[in-house]
Amino acid sequence: MFVTGYIMTVGLFIPCYVNQFYPDAAKATLQLLQKLGVEVVYPAKQTCCGQPMANSGFAHLTSDCDALFIQNFAEFDYIVAPSASCVLHVKDHLHSAENEGKAEGIRGKIYELVEFLTDVLKIEKLDAVFPHKVGIHHSCHGLRGLYLSQMTELNAAPFSKPQQLLNMVSGLEQVSLDRPDECCGFGGTFCVAEEAVSVKMGKDRVTDHSKNGAEYITSSDLSCLMHLEGILHRNKSKVKVVHIAEILNATV
Amino acid sequence: MKQTETKDHAGLAEDFIKDEERVNWHDGALWYIREKRDIASKQIPEWEALREAASQIKNNVISNLHDYLLQFEANLTKNGVKVHWANNADEHNAIVYSILKAKGITEMVKSKSMLTEECHLNEYLEERGIGVINSDLGEYIQQLDNEPPSHIVLPCIHKRKEEIGELFHEHLGTEKGLSDPTLLTRVARKHLRNVFLTRRGALTGVNFAVAETGEYVVCTNEGNADMGAHLSEVQIASMGLEKIIPQKKHLSVFLRLLARSATGQPITIYSSHYKKPREGQEMHLILVDAGRTRQLGRTDFRNSLKCIKCGGCMNTCPVYRKSGGLSYHNTISGPIGAILAPNLDMKKHADLPYASTLCGSCSNVCPVKINIHEQLYKWRQVIVKEGYAANTKALGMKAMAWTLASPEKFSTAGKAGRWFLHNIPFVVNNKFNPWYKQREMPEGPKESFAEWYAKNEK
Predict the structure, then answer these.
(1) CA–CA separation, B81 vs B283, rounded Å?
(2) What H or E segment, with its residue span, contains residue B118?
(3) Which residues of A touch B334 (CB under 8 A)?
(4) Where are the domains of chain A?
(5) If contacts are CB pairs under 8 Å, which of residues 372-431 in chain B contact chain A?
(6) Which residue out of A18, A19, A53 would a mutagenesis test of the B interface target, given it has the greatest number of B Cβ atoms within 10 Å?
(7) Are B359 and A65 an interchain contact pair (Cβ–Cβ within 8 Å)?
(8) Do domains A9-120 and A133-248 have the same CATH topology?
(9) Closest CA to A138 of A157, A115, A121
(10) Cβ atoms within 10 A of the Cβ of B197, count?
(11) What CATH number was assigned to the domain covering residues B44-293?
(12) Which residues 323-342 on chain B approach chain A with CB closer than 8 angstroms?
């Protein structure tokens, strides 16, 4: 798989809330990368990318977060995270007064898991099995920030990296949605600051998936899934959420 | 106007959402228009190139506004149009009043103009004894209801046809319970026809002003601008400084983009060019600043002035569709309103840049490629730095909980876990927690990934 014969070392960036609430997605990311022959290191002192503060208007308070991120991740060949949103934040906003060169390096070598698999490892097959009907929730930061898929607003050729990977999973059936790339309403602090709108947006996304027959909603962002899961659980829905890493790492 | 402004966007949106059936219908109607826009834009292979061309033409305009405005003024004057300059809403309103007063006009008909809404012209004139009738059907309905427009292209999109029937029953004497849109439109048409025939003064907005020729173009689907203007003794046009385009040929770019982006139509039914007064008619054009040059001076936000007011960002915005235009408590609502409004009054509109998930769909539909969602992010930084974060009640403490996440607190995984349980707004399981109101908490696992990794992978 690696033309250079050089085994790359990947720094695994597990966003704060994934670490605390969704360790299974983090484990799946680690195991999947290991299965594909990548050496993975998880720097123990990592914390947060600073996005929650920055998106609330407090970007000027994130310099300590940025410095710590650089300290943890500057030395790796690549940095991979199972979260499009956090990756986009680092790509767009990681800076350093003292180490701008290192910050720039990180901005160029940080990847969300899906794009790392399709664009860096360029995998063409997977041994994964997931015999279920699955709806893809495109997170806005993955879609319109990292261009993981073509955006429906544009007059441009379609493509979808998550779909490309899910097509390699045995037994998995992808469901089509009425609104394939509408925002779920999580939006960081928006989810509590604009609670009513956030929940209404989430409810409508969930309905789109369930009425089109999805058993699972998957995404490359757990923040969206955490919000959708909260709504599904409250409404005692049978539809479940699952991070795409867990599907791609699933065997039986 | 009916609307009170004691609540912020989150509060007004919550009120709107209480009627879920209305929200579903409002959301569906606007999504339908977004879909029509998608179909129309995808029928033109050069769509993205057109957007790029429009963006560049507008970049040129806002970079050379001074020269284009003087050229436009010179050509207007040559064509026999009287030019006025207004620094702000009051000056604009006073100019309109003085023009009408000089002719002894006490009633005026007005086609759609968001600028005059922004200036509160109707109220100003009515206080001075001059009656104004809005001739755009949607604005006419909003005027009957004493409510501002909720959408720049579809002013009464938030109203059900039954509610419009009720308004017509009350104000125009239609039969109670009549709600057939065609019949209601006929009634409005009859009333407006009489207005057109009797009003001596007519005011229109301006969609595009051509510096090269001194003409201006007004786009409508109803022909109401033409009806007013053609029958008037005094024709007034009010325009924001940014509405200039350099040459007539550039209209071929903008007219193709405007209606497709707005409603999915290939072009507006009427694209009317006004250049010279008829014999015996007076024509006036008022160029209005009202904060535009201040926005021009803000590097990060100046390109918001490229906006051609198609409303495409509103139709695609999920927050707009679920919360309704009036929840933005500003003349221009939706994503574009949220980046224009803080320039006008940062304190009053501090909540608007937060009325977004930063999903970015607005920037993708924008026909002149304004980076709307990036500007929303940047406005948040400005609002916090200028000390107005406290005005966004909804943000307040909740955002601070996040902000307190200093790296020291995260120094070990164990500490991080405890920090999370105490500080993340949606973890605290009680009725004051907005997350828990309609959503379950994430189920806490036995151990964090960091803890698992320390045990298993080292």
Answers:
(1) 5
(2) helix B114-118
(3) none
(4) 9-120, 133-248
(5) 377, 380-385, 389, 392, 394-395, 398-399, 402-403, 405-407, 410-411, 413, 416-417, 420, 424-426
(6) A19
(7) no
(8) yes
(9) A115
(10) 10
(11) 3.40.50.10420
(12) 323
B290: alpha, beta or left? (left if phi > 0; alpha if psi -120 to 50) = left
CATH number for the segment(s) A133-248: 3.40.50
Residues of B within 8 A of A48 (CB-CB) are 405, 407, 410
Nearest to B319 by CA among B340, B335, B336: B335
Per domain, the residue ranges of chain B are: 44-293, 404-456
Instruction: Classify each residue of B399-428 as buried b or exposed e, where b means 16 or more C-beta atoms within 10 Å of its C-beta.
Output: bebbbebebebbeebeebbebbeeebbbbe
Q: Which of residues 31-90 of B touch A (CB under 8 A)?
A: 31, 38, 41-42, 44-45, 47-48
Residue of chain A nearest B44, judged by CA positions: A155
Chain B nearest-CA distance from A78, in A, is: 19
CB distance A68–B417 less than 8 Å?
A: no
Topology at the third CATH level for domain A9-120: Rossmann fold (3.40.50)
CB-CB under 8 Å, B439 with A183: no
Asked if A41 contacts A11 with a C-beta cutoff of 8 angstroms, the reply is: yes
Q: Are A250 and A130 in contact (CB under 8 A)?
A: yes
In Å, how far is B333's CA from the nearest CA of chain A?
Answer: 16
- pLDDT one digit per residue (tens) for chain B, 458 residues: 555 557 899 999 999 999 999 999 999 999 999 999 999 999 999 999 999 999 999 999 999 999 999 999 999 999 999 999 999 999 999 999 999 999 999 999 999 999 999 999 999 999 999 999 999 999 999 999 999 999 999 999 999 999 999 999 999 999 999 999 999 999 999 999 998 999 999 999 999 999 999 999 999 999 999 999 999 999 999 999 999 999 999 999 999 999 999 999 999 999 999 999 999 999 999 999 999 999 999 999 999 999 999 999 999 999 999 999 999 999 999 999 999 999 999 999 999 999 999 999 999 999 999 999 999 999 999 999 998 876 665 454 444 444 444 444 444 444 445 455 555 555 555 556 788 889 988 877 888 899 999 999 76
Closest-CA distance of chain B to residue A171, Å: 28
Structure tokens at B446: 């036995």
Among A62, A83, A153, A233, the strongest candidate for a mutation testing the B interface, having the largest count of B CBs within 10 A, is A153
List the one residue out of B259, B271, B255 whose CA is nearest residue B311: B259
> A26 to chain B: which residues are within 8 Å by CB?
449
3-state secondary structure at position A147: coil
pTM for the structure as a whole? 0.94
